[in-house]
Write a structure and sequence with these properties.
Number of helices: 10
Radius of gyration: 21 Å
CATH superfamily of the largest domain: P-loop containing nucleotide triphosphate hydrolases
CATH class of the largest domain: Alpha Beta
Distance between the termini: 59 Å
Number of domains: 2
Shape: globular
Bound molecules: adenosine-5'-diphosphate, magnesium ion
CATH topology of the largest domain: Rossmann fold
CATH architecture of the largest domain: 3-Layer(aba) Sandwich
Number of strands: 13
């Protein structure tokens, strides 16, 4: 196993391809993804449903292996890890937080016991696990609720406990797949504040998937993933002054956002549960419905308002 060199990036994905075989055909979820992250960096990945975001996180977490290409974390090529070494990687070197609040925690166990469980699997002694679990629950602001079970906690509180669980075995890397996706805006912002604080406190490297640019603003860099390929780095979008809506309802979009929409003859404007979406118009109304349906957890389809703006090319000048 290679050791980490001082100047080498902490994470390196090289030409990563992930294909799933379903019946007799293949779904290519990642088509040659290249990117690196420095130790201690926080990167957000934004992209539509089906873009391959979770597939990428699963590869970095050692939960799945790439079809082609290489995934290196801290100098270790994950494809070379087998059996116990792979299990140890998952248990000690990475922590996961998932969107589905219920997937993060065992609901018949207390918050404390959820946090001690990964340490038990790592053969940590009883006293040190209790001590560490208490410390982590304090760190995520859940010290008072250590003996409550997940159903007795709010969604935001459960995600706080989930973060404590993810950090139980002192991982260097935190992978978060839409950690605030099931929360209201206020709880989401609180969870992001917490993640930012824990990052500084524990020197974590964080890769987070989100649908939400407001959450991505907590990261050092934002990458876009679409159809299995990384697109433009949106990092500097947030460096510009935030766009203002004028009295006529006009908004001046940041240059990088405009560049994303430039090729489109028409731009669709949709009201979504998380805000207003502008996107280059494609004939994909059904897909959008499916995404919405997916986001709302299979509830009945929401009434959706939809407009199309025809861009008179050059006419506005
Ligand atoms: N286990 C799987 N088996 C088959 N297809 C999958 C599997 N996981 C993901 N996919 C497909 O791969 C593509 C990317 O999925 P995913 O990584 O979950 O995207 P995202 O997280 O961005 O929504 C989608 O077309 C999805 O249907
Ligand atoms: Mg996903």
């Amino acid at each position: 196993m290679a050791s980490e060199n001082g100047n080498a990036p902490y994470i390196r994905c090289k030409s990563v391809v992930k294909a799933y075989t379903v019946g007799d055909h293949e779904i290519v979820a990642l088509r040659g993804v290249d990117f690196t992250m420095r130790r201690g960096e926080m990167v957000a990945i934004v992209g539509p449903s089906g873009a391959g975001k979770s597939s990428l996180l699963n590869l970095l977490g050692g939960l799945d292996m790439p079809t082609a290409g290489r995934v290196l974390v801290g100098g270790t090529n994950l494809a070379e890890l087998k059996g116990r070494a792979l299990a140890a990687y998952r248990l000690r070197r990475v922590g996961f937080v998932w969107q589905q609040v219920g997937r993060n925690l065992l609901e018949h166990r207390s918050a404390l016991s959820n946090v001690t469980l990964p340490m038990m699997l790592a053969a940590e002694g009883f006293r040190s696990r209790r001590h560490r679990a208490r410390e982590l629950l304090e760190a995520v602001g859940m010290g008072e609720h250590a003996h409550k079970r997940p159903p007795q906690l709010s969604g935001g509180q459960q995600q706080r406990v989930a973060i404590a669980v993810a950090l139980a075995n002192h991982p260097d890397l935190l992978l978060a797949d839409e950690p605030t996706g099931a929360l209201d805006r206020e709880s989401a912002a609180q969870v992001m504040e917490l993640i930012a604080e824990l990052r500084a406190r524990y020197g974590l490297t964080i890769l987070m998937v989100t649908h939400d640019m407001a959450m991505a603003a907590y990261a050092d860099r934002t990458l876009t993933l679409r159809d299995g390929a990384l697109g433009q780095d949106l990092t500097h979008v947030t460096d510009e002054a935030p766009p203002q809506l004028d009295a006529e309802g006009r908004i001046r979009l940041p240059a990088l956002v405009r560049a994303q929409l430039e090729e489109a003859a028409r731009i669709a404007v949709e009201i979504r549960p998380e805000g207003v979406l502008l996107r280059p118009e494609q004939e994909q109304a059904d897909e959008t419905d499916a995404i919405l349906h997916d986001m709302l957890g299979g509830a009945e389809r929401p009434r959706r308002r939809r407009w199309r703006l025809w861009r008179g090319r050059g006419a506005h000048r």
